[in-house]
Amino acid sequence: MSNWDRFTDTFFNTKVMLKYLPDILSGVVVTIELALLIVVTGIVAGLALALFRSLAIRPLNWLIIFIVDLFRSLPPLVIIVLIYFGLPSVDLSPSGFVSTWLSLAFVLMAFSEEIFWAGITSVAKGQWEAARSTGLSFGQTLMNVVLPQAFRLTIPPLTNRTIAITKGTALGTVVAVTEILGQASSAMSNSYNPSPLMMGAAAYLVLFLPVVVAARWVETRFAWKR
Amino acid sequence: MIQTFFNPDIVAASWPIVLAGLRNTVLLSLLVVPLGLLGGLILALLASVKSPAVRWPLMAWVDFFRAFPPLVLLILLFAGLPFAGLELGGFVCVAIAFFLNTGAYYGEILRAGIDSVPGGQIEAARSTGLSRLQAMAYVVLPQAVRNVLPDLLSNTLEVVKLTSLGSVVAVPELLYQARQAQSITYNPTPIVVAAIIYFLMLWPVVRLLSRLENRALAGR
Q1: Chain A residue with minimum CA distance to B177
Q2: Which of B83, B175, B187 comes nearest A10 by C-beta?
């Protein structure tokens, strides 16, 4: 066997790949479910926190800032491990899936709150005053005047963060979530062949590369004009 | 509750183990941040060559690593390469993965920084007799770095947090040590202690960043 044959036989072994393809595909489904849950709950929670913060209630704002700072400074893997291995001590046993979802959703919540808040504060004060003076209520001003302007500013940094955090679903492997990396790793140790890992790697690229390319387009389209 | 999550006896017993992990996390960060910056600098300098033959492959390279989860890259190096007869050990794998992954992120930031320096600067520098390289090193880069300092700092924070991935390939950094202590003591206290250490260590950076970001917006 030539070196090249040996290489393809090891890393791209068709027999092994075919055998474990269904496992990898089920991993893809879990990754997509997890990613969608994280993105939706994280961003909604982040927006909610930013809106609460705009009410300018001092003690509430301190609490929001503390929560945001906390989840910005802790490594996501530490939060996952803490929830998964820590909570069972108080008789709560979240699954690996739930632990990963909650952890990454908290992290995305923290980052998106910061970004939404930066967007809200960037809308000039005169806009608020003008809107209020035409008779709009606080809520109407927020919804119809401030947020539409703020969103435009928040889109490029938000897409970047969202991609970076969603990729973190691979961390779920550490707490036995059967997402792509988890499936690929166990298939690799069962077959004693790295081909499933190569398939897993390819699956991540198929999932995330289009998102990254789309984000690049969005970035230039909505670029922050400084 | 305190007995479970912050048991003083266990804090005392696991302290030396956790402390050794903290030391390794600091050392690891001191290694991988410069490595990532070096990778980023190489990419950014290559990107300043405006030829499409350089620009397109470079963009593909950066997008590849933006799409690829760092943990997958790390596992690929750590568990995949041995099949090709290359056994590198957790520490070297972390170093390579960070050079590639965080290098791509630093590269994007530095490229944006270099683009933000007006072209007149480089023309003026060249006309005073500086070579291309000198103009880049003494005129463009210092301004570029200043312009993107908040982004560089923010990425560095992410890199330090990312060193916790080392725990997956048995690099004895803070999280790994805390998990070891947890499995010895059957108590989550060491992980809570590690989390508190991460928070105390990185909170000042987060505060500073939050201020820098707000100032950047206010100054628009």
Answers
A1: A78
A2: B83
For residue A133, the distance in angstroms to the closest alpha carbon of chain B comes to 23
Q: Does residue A39 lie within any of the structural domains?
A: yes
CATH assignment at residue B107: 1.10.3720.10
Report the residue of B2, B25, B75 to disrupt the A interface, i.e. the one with the largest count of A CBs within 10 Å. B75
Position B219 in a domain: no
Q: Enter the tokens of residue B207.
A: 């505060």
SS3 label, residue B120? helix
What are the backbone angles phi and psi of residue B44, rounded to the nearest 5°?
-65, -40
The predicted complex's ipTM stands at 0.89
- For residue B63 the two structure tokens come to 């997008």
Whether residue A226 is contained in a domain is answered as: no
Rg (CA), chain A: 22
Per-residue pLDDT, A226? 44
Sign, Cα dihedral of B5, B8, B9, B14: positive
A110 and B CB contact within 8 Å: no
Give the best residue of A72, A154, A220 to mutate against chain B (max B CB count within 10 A). A72
Residue B164 and residue A77 in contact, taking contact as beta carbons nearer than 8 Å: yes
pLDDT digits (tens, 9 = 90+) for B161-201: 999 999 999 899 999 999 999 988 888 899 999 999 999 99
Residue B26 scores a pLDDT above 90: yes
Q: Please tell me the predicted confidence (pLDDT) of residue B48.
A: 82
Residue B25 lies in a domain: yes
What gap in Å lies between CA A217 and CA A219, rounded to an integer?
5
Q: Where are the alpha helices (DSSP H) in A82-176?
A: 96-122, 125-133, 138-140, 147-166
> Under a CB-based contact definition with an 8 Å cutoff, are residues B165 and A174 in contact?
no
Contact (CB<8Å) B67/A208: yes
